[in-house]
UniProtKB/TrEMBL annotation:
This is Flavin reductase family protein. InterPro entries: Flavin_Rdtase-like_dom, Split_barrel_FMN-bd. It holds the Pfam family Flavin_Reduct. GO terms for molecular function: FMN binding; oxidoreductase activity, acting on the CH-NH group of donors, NAD or NADP as acceptor.
Length: 194
């Protein structure tokens, strides 16, 4: 068993930091926001997750003051959009470093859909979207963690089977580490708590 302190890992054995590969899979935070002048931003975040269900709360962590974190702070709202296998290429296109104010929606050929309770639009093709209001922002070293309470949920009813959301049928993708490693949810198994 190898042991190392994160800043002193054996770079011959582990030339690439495996931290992201160890904490996997992680849902992708495909976050849409609106800037102070009405500019729309859409970006995928590797560090995203649900943190509570009462009230339903999600978070995303930005490596510095990127547009999503700054816009979410300014308008106190954001939308999370589920990324599926069918949307993988468009999601990847939205990670491009575009000039501020240039639309990632247009760049990736994505249609916007209006939200009901918040200003940022959602990805029309995404089967699930959460409208969120920012409830807290935490600075961690150079990362900015934005917490949002889910105030509205959009779900495509075609993916509701016998009263349950068909996660495996939708095939959401998740981040698994390194530069471009992803996984797809294609099957589920059930274990009931004792």
């Amino acid at each position: 068993m190898v042991f190392y302190e994160p800043e002193h890992r054996d770079r011959d054995l582990l030339p690439h930091d495996p931290f992201k590969a160890f904490v996997a899979p992680r849902p992708i935070g495909w976050v849409s926001t609106v800037g102070p002048d009405g500019e729309v931003n859409l970006a995928p975040y590797s560090y995203f997750n649900a943190v509570s269900d009462k009230p339903p709360t999600v978070m995303f962590s930005s490596d510095g003051p990127k547009d999503s974190a700054t816009y979410a702070q300014a308008c106190e709202e954001f939308v999370w959009n589920m990324v599926t296998f069918d949307l993988r290429e468009a999601m990847n296109q939205t990670s491009a470093a575009l000039p501020r104010g240039e639309s990632e929606f247009e760049h990736a050929g994505l249609e916007m859909a209006a939200s009901r309770l918040v200003k940022p639009p959602r990805v029309a093709a995404s089967p699930v979207a959460f409208e969120c209001r920012v409830i807290e922002r935490v600075q961690l070293a150079h990362n900015i963690v934005t917490f949002g309470q889910v105030v509205g949920v959009h779900v495509d009813e075609r993916h509701i089977v016998d009263g349950r959301f068909d996660t495996a049928g939708v095939r959401p993708i998740a981040r698994c580490g390194y530069r471009g490693d992803y996984a797809t949810v294609t099957e589920l198994f059930e274990m009931i708590r004792p």
